[in-house]
Design goal:
The protein has helices at residues 2-29, 313-316, 343-349; strands at residues 48-51, 60-64, 72-76, 89-95, 103-109, 117-123, 132-136, 141-145, 152-156, 159-160, 169-174, 185-190, 198-199, 211-214, 220-221, 234-237, 245-246, 259-262, 268-269, 282-285, 293-294, 307-309, 321-322, 335-338, 366-369. By secondary structure, the protein is mainly beta. Strands 7, 8, 10, 11, 13, 15, 17, 19, 21 and 23 form a 10-stranded mixed beta sheet that branches. The protein is rod-shaped.
């Protein structure tokens, strides 16, 4: 019976120790209970920076429970209220461009609920779909070629960008053989503010072009650029043309071309440039022409030009000239007026060591001299 009397005190001691462990367990395990539980106990750290203030929201701070880093609290930073000017700005296309018409980009805040904008910019017309653009000039410009375009009127843009996040760069060159032998192409339009400065070799050779206006910024028309364009009837040059050189065969065999005026800026007409333009009737040079050179066979068989007046610039420029056979095939019904008092003066000015007939070999046109 004595042993039985001792049981309650032993039981109380054991219970006391177990109760202590139970309380500690609850204290440490309480942090795993769902938020809001009466048993949930956190040991919070300091408030730390979480996000900066923006135009739409105050800055925020966060603190983390040391017992469980998955448990956090967030609050507005009392020292960082909403900052009305803290925008997240980017260019956004707000009016899509078409093949021929410019659109609009707007500098816009990207934050939800903010309507702030700060200026607009032109989204340049895209040109004909299917054209191919190649980066040139160390990534400062593009050249253009036909790609999948094979018919109708081609619209060539002033600028190009591959996507809305890339800058617009100028399109400065029509590439070699860009549209060669695409007979279904009947027109080409260089869009407003064109930056084209070079129409490269055979660019439009053998196409079905009926007319073209060459942009003012073009300085070179390459070899055979418009050769074999048998439907080409009208060639004009935009006001303020800076064209300097018409290269070999440029308009060769443009058999329906009837008239053309060469810009004052042109200095060189190269080999066979207008050869076999069999219906070319009117060929003139703009006032104040700077022409220095007419190449071999340049006007071979252009026999419908009744009269051609060579600019006085040919007399001023020492070292230039009219090369052998330049007017080969011309007949006695045609007249060429040159800015010299006579043949002797012309030869002295340019190619005196050569055969006196050098300038007009195989040419039966009437030569008129004007001092």
């Amino acid at each position: 019976m004595k042993n039985l009397r001792k049981l309650p005190s032993v039981f109380s001691s054991v219970l006391g120790i177990g109760g202590l462990f139970l309380i500690l367990a609850i204290s440490f395990a309480g942090c795993n209970n769902p938020a809001g539980s009466t048993a949930h106990v956190h040991d919070w750290g300091k408030w730390e920076f979480k996000a900066a203030a923006t135009c739409m929201a105050a800055g925020t701070q966060e603190r983390v429970c040391s017992q469980n880093p998955l448990h956090t609290e967030t609050r507005n930073n009392p020292d960082e209220p909403v900052i009305p000017t803290a925008h997240d700005m980017a260019w956004v296309n707000t009016l899509a461009a078409s093949a021929t018409a410019n659109g609009l980009d707007t500098y816009t805040c990207q934050r939800v609920g903010c309507n702030h904008t700060d200026g607009t910019s032109i989204a340049y017309a895209t040109g004909t779909a299917g054209l191919v653009y190649t980066s040139i000039g160390g990534g400062t410009a593009y050249s253009i070629s036909g790609g999948t375009v094979s018919s109708g009127t081609v619209y060539i843009p002033a600028y190009h960008r591959p996507d809305v996040n890339s800058p617009f760069l100028p399109v400065t060159r029509v590439a070699v053989s860009a549209f060669t032998n695409q007979s279904g192409i009947t027109g080409v339009t260089f869009l407003a503010d064109s930056k084209i400065d070079y129409i490269d070799d055979s660019a439009f050779r053998g196409t079905g072009l009926t007319s073209i206006t060459v942009p003012a910024g073009v300085t070179y028309i390459g070899n055979g650029s418009f050769s074999n364009c048998s439907e080409l009837t009208i060639v004009t040059f935009a006001p303020g043309s800076q064209l300097e050189t018409i290269f070999n065969n440029a308009f060769q065999n443009a058999t329906k071309l009837t008239s053309i005026e060469i810009p004052a800026s042109v200095k060189v007409i190269q080999l066979r440039a207008f050869e076999n333009c069999s219906n070319l009737e009117t060929f003139t040079f703009a006032a104040d022409s700077q022409l220095e050179w007419i190449g071999m066979y340049a006007f071979n068989n252009t026999t419908k030009i009744s009269a051609l007046i060579i600019p006085t610039s040919m007399r001023i420029f020492t070292g230039g000239g009219i090369v052998e056979n330049a007017f080969s095939g011309w007949t006695s019904s045609q007249t060429i007026t040159v800015p010299y008092a006579d043949l002797e003066e012309m030869l002295e000015a340019f190619m005196a060591p050569y055969n006196p007939d050098w300038k007009f070999t195989n040419c039966n046109a009437v030569i008129q001299y004007t001092p």
